[in-house]
Amino acid sequence: MTDVVSISNLDVSFATDGGDVVAVDDVSFTVGAGEIVAIVGESGSGKSVTAKTIIGLLPSTATATGAVLLGGRNVIGLSGQRLREVRGQDAAMVFQEPSTSLNPVYTVGWQLAEGLRAHGKYSRRQARATAIEYLAKVGIPDPDKRVDFYPHQFSGGQKQRIVIAMALALGPELIIADEPTTALDVTVQAEILDLLRRVRDEFGTSIVLITHNMGVVADLADRVVVMYQGEVVERATVTDLFSSPQHEYTQRLLAAVPRIDVGRERTPVAPAEPVVVADALTIEYAGRFGSGSFRAVDSVSFEIAPGEVLGLVGESGSGKTTIGRAIGGLTRVTGGSLRVLGHEMRGVRERNFSAVRRRIGFVFQDPASSFNPLLTIAQCVAEPLEVHGGGLDAATVRSRVDELLEAVQLPRAFGDRFPHELSGGQRQRVSLARALALRPELLIADEPTSALDVSVQARVLELFSELQQEFGFAALFISHDLAVVDTLADRIAVLYRGQLVEEGPSAHVLGEPEHPYTRRLLASLPVPDPIEQRERRLELQSLDHEE
Amino acid sequence: MAQRRLLDRLPVVHQLRQSVGLQRGMLVAGLIITGVFVLTAILAPVLAPYGYSQLRDEDGTFGAQQPPGPQHLLGTTVGGYDVLSRVIWGTQTAALVIVVAVILSIFIGVLLGLVSGYIGGWLDRVLVVVADAVYAFPSLLLAIVAAIAISGGQSSFWGGILAAAVSITVVFIPQYFRVIRAETVRIKSEAYVESAKVIGASPTRIMTRHVLRNATRTLPLIFTLNSSEAILTLAGLGFLGFGIEPTAAAEWGYDLNKSLSDVTSGIWWTSVFPGLAIVLVVLGITLVGESLNDLADPRLRTRRRADSGPHPTADVSVVPGGTVDDLAGLDTVEHRP
């Protein structure tokens, strides 16, 4: 097999305000023709930087040494015209966020043609014909009509298809896909992975796939390169890697991936007066002048008993976050009824609700922005104590803060640090500490782990369930990831386009899903096991044929 | 956190250490000019050979339009004042006007911007319309109207300074207002403000503790840029005859006005030196402001290239962005050689 890319002894370092930082340290690997190689690693492991080096996309602050041979040419040191020749023709790139990698003011046909005309002589008509041809190849319906559409007229998955079409149109030997499905929902992710597999099979294109999702790796890759802190720690074929991981880090990484386990033991919750009762809850956002309002949540009914964890699952736009915000009093309820700790939230006034707030804790999705950057960790955690504590003196507050930090397994000394000095996982623990400061009866966790790496996520989830047992609060756990919800929730509610399609005990919902959407959601979730994943893929395809 | 020395955390010093190459040169040049300006203003009574309104010494009157010589290093004006002394005393007037104007406008502008941005609604709409209206008005014209209204046609030292300062304030409040309002609106939707809300913190507490401190990081930039504009407005007022009388204080714009007729008759020293003073001070302060602006934005900030060879560890946490008043501190910032 001839190698499309061979990277040997690659070092990349960046000049930053904090001195030089080595992002990639002595990395070597090759990609054969028609092969899919996955580069796996956590954020900051240097996987994206390695991939960007292949097509010379490093920023000016970076310095690369070593050799990256692409089609017999060393890319490092190329610049200007010669680098442009390499880009597109020898290797093309598919980015993470499809909505920002397309220019919103040009039609997709124009953007496809732009790439073609940069690399060869095409008349306007030829370029357009080629654009339509490739749109059809990546599965865009009505390509001859939709070639004149603008990016905003496509869905996220379709946009990613178009980006892949743009990459394909120049017939590169290699496509670099940098987290191509991270921004997409699981069901769409399955479609895009399918498309990438077809691209390899039909066009013989090699693919370098960068991802942190072990399920995606198991689904698509032939060989895997595991990176950790800028170094390659393991190279293996996909079956070997999952069946017998060699390096300690790989083993940890695989162990941390949450899996759905229907047989998990769950302690039943004693029946009691529920803390949250939603009855035909409807939330509408006012539309722009002239257009109707947008119904984000459409007559949803559920209950949360004291001490129970309800997992709320759904794709983006399904209204799950809106429900969480409504319970926290951040979004107005426009129809039906929502009772939180005995208070009706429809038409609630802030003055009457502020007393209830001390009984509710909230953990936000993004650990980077949920703390005031100018306050220390101790000040952040102390905030609820100061607001509701009724004049506790500073020493008492500080000792409570220390207790809370200990409860979330952080050293006391962290109290004097600032949020940016903590890692994402540590910040999310502080977030938990702050939410639990007043020992709330209800905790709303809005995707608390979706911004974290897998191994960090595993630790935070573990901590969450320990704390839940210790403090005994009821929780609404919002997530898009069924496997994550499965590790925590007593009951699971599945949302689809604002409607509750299925609700019940976790084992039931995951074990014998009734609604076709839940079944589809379950089947789309790639499992970190290449053999099992192959079977599931067939299952998903048969589900598609049924519809 | 690692105890970073206080010196590094001061706004301008921090930026100075961060900068390299041309950006550093611009910043240093600006700082030197501004430093000389401030020192001259403070030491004016010591430095100036004569008073700003002095027309005679023990040898008799100075005489009008004397060329530069040993008696009067930069000559005398048409009114018989010593040019060098007028230029030096003028720095004091300029500095005072900057201080008074900026203090007045910063407090009102920040307060209005914060309240308007956070509370929103009709109050916000009214304030934005008013600010836009003031913006749309020619600023010098507005300053003239304000100067007349305040001084009532009289001219005294403080009256003149206040007139100039307040008229500049009227023009500047909308700038501070807009910047702080925009920041407030952005910060209002940040997760940490929402998390303060779900905790149950009162709006006043959220505004002062969470929004205000995070919204003021761009202020040093506007501060420096506005200072140079304040000098130009003051000089403009003086030039047009709405400034301070020569007996009350020295003012460059006034001197320029009086030297208009000299220019055509070959008397260059009366106009060149006050004009040069205005240009230099505005240049200096603008250089500082623009450099701070570039350094505050990580995309515009130039860095040393990474050198090849042995490297420090890879796990240094990289803090994105630097800010002007980064009190939170970037403890990873190392001393640059």
Automatic annotation (TrEMBL), chain A:
How is this protein positioned relative to the membrane?
Peripheral membrane protein
Query: Where would you say this protein principally sits, based on its record?
Result: membrane
Q: Span of the secretion signal? A: none
Sorted alphabetically, which InterPro entries does this protein's record hold? AAA+_ATPase, ABC_Ni/Peptide_Import, ABC_transporter-like_ATP-bd, ABC_transporter-like_CS, Oligopep_ABC_C, P-loop_NTPase
SMART domains in alphabetical order: AAA (SM00382)
Where found?
Answer: Cell membrane
Chain ranges of the ABC transporter domain: 7-254, 281-522
User: Where are the annotated coiled coils located?
Assistant: none
Give one GO term, molecular function aspect: ATP binding
Q: Do the record's keywords include Transferase? A: no
Report whether ATP-binding shows up as a keyword of the record. yes
Which terms are listed as keywords in the entry? ATP-binding, Cell membrane, Membrane, Nucleotide-binding, Transport
Family per similarity comment? Belongs to the ABC transporter superfamily.
Q: What is this protein called?
A: ABC transporter ATP-binding protein
Species whose genome carries this gene? Antiquaquibacter soli
UniProtKB/TrEMBL annotation, chain B:
Which PANTHER family does the protein's record reference? D,D-DIPEPTIDE TRANSPORT SYSTEM PERMEASE PROTEIN DDPC-RELATED (PTHR43386:SF1), OLIGOPEPTIDE TRANSPORT SYSTEM PERMEASE PROTEIN APPC (PTHR43386)
Question: Which stretches of sequence are listed as region Disordered?
Answer: 303-325
Name of the protein in its database record: ABC transporter permease
A Pfam family for this UniProt protein? OppC_N
Main localization category:
membrane
Q: Which family does it belong to?
A: Belongs to the binding-protein-dependent transport system permease family.
Name the lineage: Bacteria, Bacillati, Actinomycetota, Actinomycetes, Micrococcales
Assigned keywords, A-Z: Cell membrane, Membrane, Transmembrane, Transmembrane helix, Transport
Annotated source species: Antiquaquibacter soli
CDD domains noted in UniProt: TM_PBP2 (cd06261)
Which SUPFAM superfamilies would you find in this protein's record? MetI-like
